UniProtKB/TrEMBL annotation:
This is ABC transporter permease subunit. Its main location: membrane. The lineage of its organism: Bacteria, Bacillati, Bacillota, Clostridia, Eubacteriales. It is found in: Cell membrane. One of its GO terms (biological process) is transmembrane transport. The chain crosses the membrane at residues 12-35, 80-99, 111-132, 144-163, 184-209, 245-266. Keywords: Cell membrane, Membrane, Transmembrane, Transmembrane helix, Transport. One of its GO terms (cellular component) is plasma membrane. It is a multi-pass membrane protein. It comes from the Bacteria.
């Protein structure tokens, strides 16, 4: 009996130690960034990065500099435009395509689905040169259209998620609506799409987090200063000459806050949406 208690106690200790280590790995860099953002260059050089400044010595000038930057409103506007347009077409095309693939039997249906799944499996870097050439030939390089096209066409996560939800909706609803004289378009926007609300909420939240946090696509396809997004806006504080770790840390926190708050508010909906779409009744 005592041996069993010792085993359980040892197991709990190991579990708590592993959990604490994971939390430290995740939260540690965020705390270092937060503490750095409220220090001066002199404080950063004289104190440990893992320790906050002394009480009363917190420096908020870094945040004032970031929030007063002329490019910040431009970055917010560009990010908002990319978000709204990308999410609109992701939801529209993802839900319609998933409905068609799940509800209708047509020739080469399996081949079409296989092509979609293959597109999800191929790493982005494998087709990066070809994608860049396509964007350039379409005349979208250095325009807001480049990231919009990429976010809509290259990420097929929403298609898989919508297909899982559509497969759970009884076909009897479609058949009843057809008997009542509804067409397929009416069935989709009046019956099917409202039932996809949990999937749509999950897609919207995940897309917002992914797009706002993405630096690679805007940096590569929109190098113009007037096309800065929130993530490429950070590059203004990362140069060798104008670089300042406290100011860069403050800019990172400013960019990070909206997505963190959004995720903390809607994390339950994200989890429920993903788990609901992963099971089939």
């Amino acid at each position: 009996m005592n041996r069993d208690k010792c085993k359980r106690a040892l197991f709990l200790c190991v579990k708590y130690l592993v959990s604490a280590a994971v939390v430290a790995v995740v939260v540690g860099p965020l705390l270092v960034t937060l503490f750095t953002s409220v220090k001066t260059q002199a404080q950063l050089a004289s104190t440990s990065p893992i320790l906050p400044p002394a009480p009363g010595a917190w420096n908020w000038d870094n945040y004032a500099e970031v929030l007063g930057a002329k490019l910040l409103p431009v970055a917010v506007k560009n990010t908002a435009v990319i978000l709204v347009v990308s999410i609109f077409f992701n939801v529209l095309l993802g839900s319609v395509t998933a409905y068609c693939l799940q509800r209708f039997e047509f020739r080469f249906r399996r081949l079409v689905m296989g092509c979609f799944y293959l597109g999800m499996l191929v790493p982005t870097f494998v087709v990066e040169i070809a994608r860049f050439k396509v964007i350039q030939s379409m005349g979208l390089y250095n325009t807001l259209g480049a990231p919009i096209i990429i976010y809509v066409a290259s990420d097929l996560m929403q298609l898989y998620l919508y297909m899982q939800f559509v497969s759970k909706i009884p076909k009897a609803l479609d058949e009843s609506a057809l008997i009542d004289g509804c067409g397929y378009f009416r069935i989709f926007y009046s019956i099917i799409f409202p039932l996809l609300a949990p999937a749509t909420a999950t897609v919207v939240i995940l897309k917002i987090v992914n797009i706002v946090n993405d630096m690679y696509v805007p940096y590569l396809y929109m190098p113009k200063t007037k096309l800065k997004t929130l993530t490429t806006f950070l590059m203004n504080y990362a140069g060798a000459q104008q670089g300042s770790w406290p100011t860069l840390a403050a800019a990172i926190i400013v960019v990070l806050i909206p997505t963190v708050v959004l995720y903390l508010i809607f994390h339950k909906q994200i989890t429920e949406g993903l788990s609901a779409g992963a099971t089939k009744e």
